[in-house]
């Protein structure tokens, strides 16, 4: 990643998936900038950014297009061009991340789609204008987009739309040498995940039923992100790369599996 510069969106603390990704990129020589949501997070994000030798942090609420415009104007003033963006952002009312999907309210449906789906498209629009010699765009998704998972509800519907957007964006921007991919991470204990009902049970289930018989770490997601954001991934776009200890390939575990 030497000589590459990129933006990491969605760092909240040292448990964030964005932190695992930022560490992997910085270790391999990338120069990073971070955006955070709201002044309150700055005191957490700035010290983390500084640990990676990056004091460049910008406030940005992705629900506010003026705030996104300002972020990319600031980045353009700072660097002129950009090589990659990591979008590790999602949000829904936690009261609707339990119970039944069918009870989802219209307001929360719209808000979840806006922050968790449209924001990625809005980011790609702005980032692509700063990617004159190609680039790589990455977002984070979850298996609840593909199959029904307990309590994931409206977020599963949002992630399905996000995964579809990745494919459309890959096609739109591919001719400019800009790649667009998603990582579908297995469950990881983070601030956002703590809002999902029975999350500890979901983690235990994945640990027992994944081919690797364990959960994944932020660092493992970071390594996969390094592949997609660097030249190692130069032939890959429109992809949804599962970093989930293989959970997505399992239909049913064999009856003689050792830990049943
Ligand atoms: P996290 O809480 O550390 O990160 C979520 C981030 O989204 C926070 O930094 C928060 O500030 C940001 N955010 C929310 N609303 C925003 C807004 N309006 N403007 C700007 N930022 C906003 O949790 P995480 O688990 O690291 O989540 C990162 C991404 O990974 C999310 O898209 C999440 O759905 C996805 N993901 C998480 C898991 C998991 O198990 N933790 C699994 C698969 C995918």
TrEMBL record:
NAD(+) binds at residues 10, 16-17, 37, 61-62, 89, 159, 188-192. It is an enzyme of class 1 (oxidoreductase). Its EC number is 1.3.1.9. One of its GO terms (biological process) is fatty acid biosynthetic process. InterPro entries: Enoyl-ACP_Rdtase_NADH, NAD(P)-bd_dom_sf, SDR_fam. It comes from the Bacteria. Pfam families: adh_short_C2 (PF13561). Pathway: Lipid metabolism; fatty acid biosynthesis. Keywords: Fatty acid biosynthesis, Fatty acid metabolism, Lipid biosynthesis, Lipid metabolism, NAD, Oxidoreductase. The active site is at 142 (proton acceptor), 152 (proton acceptor). One of its GO terms (molecular function) is enoyl-[acyl-carrier-protein] reductase (NADH) activity. It catalyses: a 2,3-saturated acyl-[ACP] + NAD(+) = a (2E)-enoyl-[ACP] + NADH + H(+). Belongs to the short-chain dehydrogenases/reductases (SDR) family. FabI subfamily. NCBIfam families: PRK08159.1. This is Enoyl-[acyl-carrier-protein] reductase [NADH].
């Amino acid at each position: 990643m030497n000589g590459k510069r990129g933006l990491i969106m969605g760092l909240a603390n040292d448990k964030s998936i964005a932190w695992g990704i930022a560490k992997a990129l910085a270790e391999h020589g990338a120069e990073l900038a971070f955006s955070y949501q709201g002044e309150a997070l700055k005191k957490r994000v700035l010290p983390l950014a500084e640990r990676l030798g990056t004091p460049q942090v910008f406030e940005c609420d992705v629900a506010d297009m003026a705030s996104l415009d300002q972020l990319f104007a600031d980045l353009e003033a700072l660097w002129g061009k950009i090589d990659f963006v990591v979008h590790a952002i999602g949000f829904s009312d936690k009261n609707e991340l339990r119970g039944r999907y069918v009870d989802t309210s219209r307001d929360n449906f719209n808000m979840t789609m806006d922050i968790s789906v449209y924001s990625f498209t809005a980011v790609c629009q702005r980032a692509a204008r700063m990617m004159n010699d190609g680039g790589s765009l990455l977002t984070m998704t979850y298996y609840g987009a593909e199959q029904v998972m307990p309590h994931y509800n409206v977020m599963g519907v949002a992630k399905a739309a996000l995964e579809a957007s990745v494919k459309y964006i890959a096609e739109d921007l591919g001719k400019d040498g800009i790649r667009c991919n998603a990582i579908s991470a297995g469950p990881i204990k983070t601030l956002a995940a703590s809002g999902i009902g029975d999350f500890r049970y979901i983690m235990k289930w994945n640990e027992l039923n994944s081919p690797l018989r364990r959960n994944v770490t932020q660092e493992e997601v970071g390594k996969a992100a390094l592949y997609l954001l660097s030249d190692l991934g130069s032939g890959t776009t429109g992809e949804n790369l599962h970093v989930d200890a293989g959970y997505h390939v399992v239909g049913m575990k064999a009856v003689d599996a050792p830990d049943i």
